[in-house]
Amino acid sequence: MAKNIVADASARPELSARMAEETMTEEEAETMLAKVLSHPPLLSGSDVDAIESVFQSPDFGRRRRCALAGAMQSGAELSRIKDDRELAVVLAGVMAAAGDQSRKLAELAEVFSALSARIVVALAMREDFQNVMDEGAEMVGCTALLAERVARPAL
Q: Could you write out the DSSP letters of every residue in 67-93?
């Protein structure tokens, strides 16, 4: 069943280097698949609501825009910090906003990375793995049908 994980792995750059080198045994692949299929969800509904609340909050948007505005400063503009205390304080705030944004986005990126890894291992069970991957890559956005299918309660 898990043999698809190693079959033609070179054509699937999303798989890990170990898998791409085809060094995973059938037993290791079966063990990985069993672990993925036995894991609880990465997030609960309340986790998703909390994340959405943060990312959709006006404060998050202001801090993101502040950090992006800071990214527009050249080195020459930053050199003005030496003689302009007010600018120095403002840019210290920009630095704090950038750090906050970076941490939150990195945490979300970790969830998405784990999700992608879990899904690719589960998809590898399918004989039509590559076709499913190709068709899924063509989907743009989260359609109502996809949202409905994904949001179904677990059995």
A: HHHHHT--HHHHHGGGT-HHHHHHHHH
Task: State the Cα–Cα distance between residues 101 and 5, nearest whole angstrom.
Answer: 36
pTM score = 0.68
- Model confidence pLDDT, tens digit, residues 47-95: 999 999 999 999 999 999 999 999 999 999 999 999 999 999 999 999 9
Rounded Cα gap, residues 9 and 70, in angstroms: 42
Residue 16 to residue 123: CA distance in whole angstroms: 15
In angstroms and rounded to an integer, the radius of gyration of the C-alpha atoms of the chain is: 22
Q: Quote the CA–CA distance of 62 and 97 in Å, as a whole number.
A: 9
> Alpha helices of 81-138 — where are they, by DSSP H?
85-123, 129-138
Q: In the chain, where are the structural domains located?
A: 1-38+125-155, 44-117
